[in-house]
Specification:
Elements (H helix, E strand, L loop, with lengths): L2 E6 L7 H11 L3 E6 L9 H8 L17 H8 L2 E7 L1 H9 L5 H8 L4 E5 L3 H5 L1 H12 L3 E2 L3 E4 L5 E5 L3 H11 L9 E6 L4 E2 L5 E2 L6 H12 L3 E6 L11 E4 L3 H11 L5 E4 L6 E3 L18 E3 L3 H6 L6 E8 L3 H11 L4 E6 L11 E8 L2 E9 H17 L1
Helix pairs in contact: 1-2, 1-8, 3-5, 4-7, 9-13
């Protein structure tokens, strides 16, 4: 059984941690709880003692420990150190190596994997110094779960809500399932395509490729052998992922069809052009008159072609919509013979193209599931976990 040391910092989201303890224990984890003094102002230690079956630790120097080194003993006991909720203050302490209470001292003493589920006001989350602290901790190997966007206790709306306990536990069960995609081959498309008009100009779209690259990175971390077919993006390569760079929709179609026969899963996250110029001018088109015309022809529908194969892989499409999300997503699911489709809004204030955030509503035959607004890395983990569930079903 895994030992989870749960750190709770001060914030209204501390009430969620009670449900988190209950769900972790239901999934077989042994949980011990550490609280800051500020956290005890929101929810009592007795609540967590009753739920976990263990005394709650709040003091740095604990006379009940034989060597008065409770922080060292707890740090060595833990297989996983999870801080949920993690306030901006405790994130700042961790980032700068401060150790003036039990929780921050445990962070320095811990040698196990550390996970942080932030919870704070949206303005605090977006503050440059907070983002710098998060970047520093990420570089130190700390893994962040969330936060999510939504209404906050202060009455504002935005990114900063602690990820719901059920989603945190789902993340852990997937992460520690000894590679839930072990032995699977997954092909992922990402980014936009560019459809040339002449040697200078092209037609494209706003896709950054961030969602597809996040899926590729998380899939290989979960044990999959990943092939990434990428349009033009400004993103770094991913370790242990085979990347094939393409430009046009025709290039992407050809690359996908070359590799699809050996795949178990295909995730079509790319924003592929629906139309391409019927001819490419050999020289730069000169400005002439007040108006001009472009003749366009349909490109091949990559995901539909894959889904029509007799030995098709489990095929997941994406639907980026500005209206009637459910209607268009379900139409594509049926019309293109997909196993699953992940739909998201674009052209709105948060999420979608060229953003680090997104939210998805996923549909399959006789089922659906919504994932709230969060960063695309977290969203990729959630979607991949769902894909595994549907594969097993």
């Amino acid at each position: 059984m895994k030992h989870v040391l749960l750190g709770i910092s001060g914030g209204i989201a501390a009430y969620k941690s009670a449900e988190l303890v209950r769900l972790l224990m239901r999934h077989g984890y042994i949980v011990r709880v550490v609280m800051t003094q500020a956290a005890t102002q929101f929810i009592t230690p007795l609540t967590f003692q009753a739920l976990s079956g263990h005394p709650v630790h709040t003091r740095l120097l604990d006379e009940s420990q034989e060597n008065a080194m409770g922080h060292i003993n707890l740090a060595r006991w833990a297989d996983i150190f999870l801080i949920a909720p993690a306030s901006a203050n405790c994130i700042a302490k961790f980032s700068h190596g401060l150790a003036d209470d039990l929780l921050s001292t445990l962070y320095l003493a811990a040698e196990c994997p550390v996970y942080i589920a932030p919870a704070m006001n949206q303005a605090m989350w977006h503050k440059a110094v907070t983002q710098e602290n998060i970047k520093r901790l990420t570089q130190h190997g700390i893994m962040f779960i969330g936060p999510e966007a939504g209404s906050q206790a202060c009455g504002e709306t935005g990114l900063g809500r602690m990820t719901e306990p059920e989603a945190i536990v789902q993340y852990f069960t997937a992460l520690h399932a000894a590679g839930i995609l072990q032995g699977k081959k997954i092909l992922i498309t990402a980014g936009p395509t560019r459809e040339a008009l002449d040697p200078v100009r092209y037609i494209s779209n706003r896709s950054s490729g961030k969602m597809g690259y996040a899926l590729a990175e998380q899939a290989q971390l979960l044990g999959a052998e990943v092939t990434l077919i990428s349009g033009p993006v400004q993103l770094p390569a991913i370790n242990n992922v085979k990347i094939h760079l393409v430009e046009s929709a025709a290039d992407m179609h050809a690359a996908v069809m070359r590799h699809i026969a050996e795949q178990d899963v295909m995730i079509a996250a790319a924003a592929v052009a629906d139309y391409t110029p019927d001819s490419v001018q050999p020289e730069k088109i000169k400005k002439q008159g007040e108006q001009t015309e472009l003749n366009l022809q349909r490109t091949q529908d990559i995901v539909a072609n894959v889904a029509s194969l007799s030995n098709k892989p489990f095929t997941v499409g994406f639907a980026a919509e500005t209206q009637n999300l459910e209607h268009y997503a379900l139409d594509k699911l049926q019309r293109k013979n997909l196993d699953m489709i992940a739909a998201n809004w674009v052209g709105q204030s948060q999420g979608g193209f060229d953003s680090d955030l997104n939210a998805l509503h996923v549909y399959w035959h006789n089922g659906e599931k919504a994932f709230k607004m969060t960063d695309k890395t977290q969203l990729a983990k959630q979607l991949l976990t769902l894909i595994v569930e549907r594969l097993n079903a």
